[in-house]
Design brief:
mainly alpha; two-stranded antiparallel sheet
């Protein structure tokens, strides 16, 4: 989200790095974001999406928005789901300090094949990928 660019240092890094941000609720911003996503993907650059659109208030995985899935279909690229656990407690939503003793884990899942990406509507695809990611998330807690 574009508001993150207002933070000193973080915002500068995002701008220098060429990160794509969006002004939520602004159609022109969405169009610009989609154009930039296409340009980066055409250059074979990976893009990280946060499909929930915001940080969770509970630490649980929220419903996914469809933007990342539309981009994958439109640009004919695979989706590589990544699930993290524990980072919510490193810095909770709205907090200004971090908990340096908190550990977190990351699991990189198998890519979603192009055949699957193109065989489903975006809403179904988003829901199914979310469901798989939730199963991995639950596995973190079973250990």
């Amino acid at each position: 989200k574009a508001e993150v660019k207002k933070f000193p240092i973080v915002g500068w890094m995002l701008s220098l790095h060429g990160d794509i941000t969006i002004h939520r609720g602004h159609t022109e911003s969405t169009k610009k974001m989609n154009r930039l996503v296409g340009e980066w993907l055409n250059r074979k650059v990976s893009i990280t999406f946060f499909p929930e659109g915001t940080r969770t208030k509970t630490g649980e995985i929220n419903r996914f928005k469809e933007g990342a899935f539309v981009a994958a279909q439109k640009n004919n690229v695979k989706i590589l789901p990544v699930v993290s656990n524990g980072n919510f407690f490193v810095m909770a939503k709205g907090a200004w300090t971090i908990n340096p003793k908190q550990r977190f884990s990351v699991r990189i899942m198998d890519p979603i094949p192009l055949e699957e990406i193109h065989s489903k509507d975006t809403k179904t695809l988003a829901a199914e990928v979310r469901e798989r990611m939730c199963k991995v998330y639950e596995e973190f807690y079973q250990r």
